[in-house]
Amino acid sequence: MRYSGLQVLAQGLLGNRGWTPAWRDPDPKPAYDILIIGGGGHGLATAFYLAKEHGLTNIAVLEKGYLGGGNVGRNTTIVRANYGLPGNSEFYSHSLKLWEQLESELNYNVMHSQRGIINLFHSDGQRDAYARRGNAMINQGDDAILLDNAGCRKLLPYLDYDQTRFPIYGGLYHPRGGTARHDAVAWGFARGADTRGVDLIQNCEVTGIDIENGAVTGVQTTRGAIKAKKVGIVVAGRSSQVAAMAGMRLPIESHVLQAFVTEGLKPCLDHVVTYGMGHFYVSQSDKGGLVFGGDLDFYASYAARGNLPMAEHVMEAGLTLMPMIGKAKVLRSWGGIMDMSPDGSPVIDKTHIDGLYLNCGWCYGGFKAVPGSGFSFAHLIATDRPHAPAARYRLDRFLTGRGLMDEEATGSQHNLH
Amino acid sequence: MQIRCPLCGLRDVREFTIKGHAIALSRPAPDAGDEAWNAYLHLRENPAGVTTELWHHTAGCGAWLKVTRNTITHEILKVALVRDGVERTDAD
Lengths: 417, 92
Prior knowledge:
The structure holds two protein chains of two kinds.
Chain A: H1 5-13, E1 31-37, H2 41-54, E2 59-62, E3 78-79, H3 88-106, E4 117-121, H4 124-139, E5 145-148, H5 149-155, E6 170-174, E7 178-179, H6 182-195, E8 199-201, E9 206-212, E10 215-221, E11 224-233, H7 239-244, E12 253-264, E13 272-275, E14 280-284, E15 289-300, H8 308-321, E16 330-340, E17 347-350, E18 356-360, H9 370-383, H10 397-400
Parallel strand pairs in A: 1-2, 1-11, 2-8, 4-13, 11-18
Antiparallel strand pairs in A: 3-7, 4-6, 5-6, 9-10, 10-11, 12-15, 12-16, 13-14, 14-15, 17-18
Helix pairs in contact in A: 2-6, 2-9, 3-9
Chain B: E1 2-5, E2 9-12, E3 17-21, H1 34-41, E4 50-56, E5 64-70, E6 76-81, E7 87-88
Antiparallel strand pairs in B: 1-2, 3-4, 4-5, 5-6, 6-7
């Protein structure tokens, strides 16, 4: 069913009895051309672009729980293209362009809101670093405006500019950045893939990967064996476990990142604001809740919940930046499991096993990458050649040391990003 | 989380800094080759379950600790001094 304003009106007049499920719930067939392990944002986007861009539809997405039940439903919904290094820069630029046409492409309201992102800086050195980053963004064809203190005050009058610890010098403004409704992104891609003939199979956990003579032949699942010519692993948070089924050990550690939302408030934050020095970032959802987060807890975890010290740290940072939110009550906190790579950048690559492809390592930035990652992973699976904007996301860069993408310049080591 | 430091007793996790997986104690020889160094520096078993990692009692005695911990429940099963392998369980 195609969604439109007319459809809403017509259904409303007919008592909303004509709406149909957005996707089927099929049983797995014995064999497919391509299996995508992981029905999250990246997996669903991969299936969608395989069908749309490459005309491949004999595909199943295997999800151990329900569609979109992992990190795509647990993030803080920020969409941006403000990376500085070659490799990341062109990839996120491409992803943002896909975001900008996503709603018409999917015929689905993902509530993409380009409200702008402002990264605050607090010293001359940080201003130089952000000026450089802004220039890198402009060179890539994206948008960046370096705001001074007065420019920031005009857009963000509610910040505490004169705090003694980190006085605000200005900010790097990325107007095309913003937020999107995270669940709707998964649902939109699911519906788009299903409509084109992809089978989305839920409650189907992969328990083994079948390999014969160095080539993948299918997978074992809780709903039986499924044959396939090609298999894509895109299971952020659980990448190490699934790759281990193919005998691989990945350069990944899983960490918990917490996020928080307050009760609904009247509109007060018009942008996404990031406060790197305090490890805090915030935006306001369309329901009115302040959605915010900070740093990793920094120990390996699969618990999907964090500990109190980081929660306290994030709240304290938030209050030093914008004291006005001090009386807002926190409604919920939760954690997502991040695939942390040593250099802080992801992997979209073939493996040493024929027909087995890997998409992992999105660290704490996977949400904005959903369309770009799906597009590039689909290109790799369909053509066996890397898609240009993602060509540097190689798995062997850690072994060779060539092409490491360490945006924070802290080194390519675990536990630094 | 709380960690039972063998020297200081049960202390809040805020006093500790994590270094990462205890693989850091198994440094390869300088001439061990790229594969061995890649495995040491980057590749991780990354278990969903029991793991062993290094914590530093930064705001306490300064000892390096080898902590056995469950990554699903955050339960700490065993803490030992890296220095001499002295181990203490929560029952001690």
